Amino acid sequence: MRKDARLNREKLLEAARALFAERGLDVPLSEVARRAGVSIGTLYNRFPDRTALSLAVYAEHTEAVVRSAERALEMPDAWAGFTYFLERLCLLQAADKGFNEYCASGLAELIPGEELRRGYTLMGELVAAAQRAGALRADFVTEDLAFVTWSVARTIEATAGVAPEAWRRHLALMCDGLRRSAATPLPAPPLRPEQAASIVHCAADRGEAPGAVG
User: Fold this and answer.
1) C-alpha span between 136 and 144 (Å, rounded)
2) Region class of 191: left (phi > 0), else alpha (psi between -120 and 50), else beta
3) 99-116 per-position pLDDT tens digit
4) Other CB atoms within 10 A of residue 60 CB
5) Which DSSP state fits 107?
6) Pick from 47, 54, 56: which is nearest to 101 by CA?
């Protein structure tokens, strides 16, 4: 990529990052181009659609989620590592309106395959470690993490303007409910991986996806 093309790409990413964080993913792309000081044609030359732009903007966030999972796995207390990971993910969501919508839109399912597999593998290891330690209920599966991220994403969205820390209470309540000591038999089986993916993709097609893991 030529130097001027790289510069335009960075300007667009910087502009989109700021606008998405403040106002969410629905910001007009023409406004992103204006903020970056380039034409809308230049934007589309670099990013063919909003999805491509969003994936590029939040690539660093995806890496941060993976790093948080790696750090969590290094903790000697497996339950502390599990809850640390969830808190770090939710902190990223709470600090950036666009990333919160990204997590609740199914776009995270579209990140490059290797990165997605890495993140999913690490989350599975966190779940297994917390279960081996006897802290996390035995019937919890990695796909159940989707319910946590979907739920907290909506709490952040609903309370941001009134009680921006309310998600912390919500997350703490959920984590207490996930403890092995609090477990009671569940009335339905967990989602299989292909079911979870199907739900996300179908809802995304309707523009109302509840979320995605990682």
Assistant:
1) 12
2) beta
3) 878 776 655 555 555 666
4) 11
5) G
6) 54
- Average pLDDT over every residue of 15-28: 92
Dist CA 46 CA 93 (whole Å): 26
Which amino acid, 22? E
Report the 10 Å Cβ neighbour count for 150.
Answer: 19
- 72-77 CB contacts, 8 Å cutoff, 24+ apart: 72/126, 73/122, 73/125, 73/126, 73/129, 77/133
Question: Is the pLDDT at 210 greater than 60, yes or no?
Answer: no
Kind and range of the H or E element at 200?
helix 193-205
SS (H, E, C) 153-188: HHHHHHHCCCCCCHHHHHHHHHHHHHEHHHCCCCCC
- Going by pLDDT thresholds of 50, 70 and 90, the confidence category of residue 2 is confident
For residues 156 and 93, is the Cβ–Cβ distance under 8 A?
A: yes
Which pair of tokens denotes residue 127?
């779940």
- Give the DSSP H or E segment for 84: helix 78-95
- What does the alpha-carbon distance between residue 65 and residue 92 come to, in Å, rounded to a whole number? 9
pLDDT at 206 over 50: no
Model pLDDT, residue 211: 39
Tell me the two tokens of residue 40.
């809308």
Q: Please give the angle made by the CA atoms of 132, 118 and 99, to the nearest 5 degrees.
A: 105
Q: Which of 107, 108, 123 is nearest to 66 (CA)?
A: 123
DSSP type of residue 37: T
